[in-house]
Amino acid sequence: MKKVTIILLTGLFFLAAGNIFAQKITSGSFAALKGQNTVNIQYDYSNLMVGKKTEKEYIEKGTIDRNKKKEGTGDTWAEAWETDKTSRFQPTFEKNLNGVLNSIDLLAKEDEKDAKYTLIVHVTFIEPGFQSGMGPAKSATINMEVTLVETATPATVLGTIVYDKIPSVNMMGYDFDTGSRVESCFDRAGENIGRVIVKATK
Known about the structure:
The protein is an alpha/beta fold. The protein contains four helices and ten strands; from the N terminus they run αββββααββββββα.
């Protein structure tokens, strides 16, 4: 019984540790969203680094390497890398963000041009990680900068928060798909920024 308790406590410790990542409000606040019903979301992947490469370099190398092993697989992989942003990463981010914002009756949505304010989600770094089953593994992480601006005048910055090394969720060795690992980072990011906004508006 004692051994079981220790194992459970150890597991909870690592689970909690996995949810810890660096965040810093570098300027202003998100208090302007108090009383708003909607907020626009704009995604930005400009100057994105993937590991030690630019996104362009990463895709080019990944495509060539995979096509060498099996013709066409690299092209399929490159297409999935791009479509994952709009079909997986962003919807997951918004789902978890809105799951928290629902408590203050605020809805965050892409292309909500009539909203007074816009959240610019700038993804600056992605570590795709890897999973080999029973062998070595590396969690995915992302860095992003979330900025609140006035929709009509984007140069008017109201608040900025920087996130460093948001980790993927521990899938107990079953996160073989790169997209799934990175998507889980967006999962955590959405929930966290939601908490920041709720706290700022109370």
